[in-house]
């Protein structure tokens, strides 16, 4: 029996684990929490690349060396460990999951989703249309002045917000989870303070174009008629491209 | 007590016999146990029988590498019951072959020496690169003798070449009264690292719920960067294997001043993420391309990258002046750094790590670098890419870790502070460039978030300086460049950025 080169063994293990985890993430669709969908094709390139490197290292497996440089392998094992242990969740500020039913919003709660849909004056923004609506409203705000809409978003409240202010927002991912930016307009709502950070809500609101002091410019501001709990959308994130 | 086995390698007439006789004298143990000396090479200098006798030493000759195996060593131990075994190893046999032997349990390798004649060291290294790097990379101590004809510069250069092949080996010039240094850094460090991993595992388990956002950001940076790093190291390995140093330096030395615009334009044809640039540029610098061109290329590529220009326009629609400012000021900064480096006369030796410079294929198993044929070279390319992957990979993991930690603890609201002076605004944006920079292709979208609370020149400063000062990119560069040079580069960049963007601020406001 021959001795095995520990360094090469560690390297091959790491490379194959990278390939396996990436493949798993793509197949189970968890990858969307980490990177934008358009990156996925590059991920297949990564998988092929590391497998080729692993194969090319294998002849060295039975050629021991006096000194093994294990440190790079140990460092590379850190993200692998992290990837194996933690479940993928959106890395936004909505780390705390919305818990529907726990919130008490008085009369609003009795309005069922079906009931609301019958209202004719309201523009309904579906989960899929959100991005289109948001960008359009940013670019042509006057089109939406005095319109009533119903959109779904997660509650976002930042330091400096008044007690009646919150932003129902969706996180947008351009490239990876490090560049998440909230997409949403300021919303005035009496009980904004009572909303739970990160919970998903339907906001029915009248849009007014006015000066928004936080953003320091003229933009759409939502005046909430009702805020009711909602299910989180299938795709929590939106991707601008 | 277990039997100490020492291997003494080196070419014919390097002075192995003399060294071993010295070793016998200086480390003579007083107890009655024997020393076994296995000679794999008959040198010019014969062992003096009287010395062997005096130090209770038995000599065994071996002429074939295949004779050295477990049963051979076992039979020696059984027959002579020695306290130690010296092997005068044949200079043309790879030490890796001996390391493959599963030694008897009461016997371990104590030290591996490589003896070299300093006066012809450089000559041998050039002509017998693969066998020599194999032996040095497996050695604990390299002993250099016959160094009288060398001056101190040559001596340091040899030591540097040895360090480049094997950073853990001690290189010493031989003296008669030389005492063997104890070899004490054992597998202890490996044990420590495994323990560290276990602690990290526990940390990850405990922060599973609260810290998962951090881990997601950390992983996403890596997942997103990985394909581009692979592209970078494959291009870098291609340059290393297929393009000779002379050829590439010749191409660049033909340019004089035109080299600067050429380096900028070259960036247009590398529409890759900036993560790919670090390995490519380290390789170019290592191959001897003038540093001022390499740095101009490195710094301007993420600015003139067509994908970056598109995404900037997309993030700031109807504001083409933002795109123009980004490209214009970015190129200006890249060129300024290029000029400064040129006039400062920074040399390759000053800036680039030797590991890249001398022998990138330090590992014995990488094999001969001069292998002929396209298929052979292709295999070399991939093996080389593998080595570089582990070299660069560990740096980017550390960089991404720190970046995501800082992103977690410094919320973006901190960057919306109002009522601060113009210079503080600039510095805040520079800080954001270092710690909060994402890929150059998407940082325009982050910048749009800043644009509500910061003036335009500051936002452009963030976009331009982000890819240049990004922590994880700098970490990756430190795999190829010397740390001191990188720190100087960063300082130069910050000074230039403050200067240029202050002017821009005066201009636009």
Automatic annotation (TrEMBL), chain A:
Transmembrane segment boundaries: 7-27, 39-58, 70-89
Lineage: Bacteria, Bacillati, Bacillota, Clostridia, Eubacteriales
DUF1980 domain span: 117-237
Organism field: Ruminiclostridium papyrosolvens C7
Protein name: DUF1980 domain-containing protein
InterPro entries: DUF1980, DUF1980_C, UPF0703_membrane_permease
Keyword Mitochondrion in annotation: no
Keywords: Membrane, Transmembrane, Transmembrane helix
Pfam families according to UniProt: DUF1980_C
Automatic annotation (TrEMBL), chain B:
GO cellular component: plasma membrane
Subcellular location: Cell membrane
Pfam families per UniProt: ArsP_1 (PF03773), cobW (PF02492)
This protein's record includes keyword Methyltransferase: no
UniProt KW keywords: Cell membrane, Membrane, Transmembrane, Transmembrane helix
Superkingdom of this protein's organism: Bacteria
Keyword Membrane among UniProt keywords: yes
Membrane topology (UniProt): Multi-pass membrane protein
Membrane-traversing stretches: 108-125, 188-207, 213-243, 255-280, 292-316, 323-344, 389-411, 423-446, 452-469, 489-508
Domain CobW/HypB/UreG nucleotide-binding: residue ranges: 6-171
Family, similarity comment: Belongs to the UPF0718 family.
Annotated protein name in UniProt: Permease
Species of origin: Ruminiclostridium papyrosolvens C7
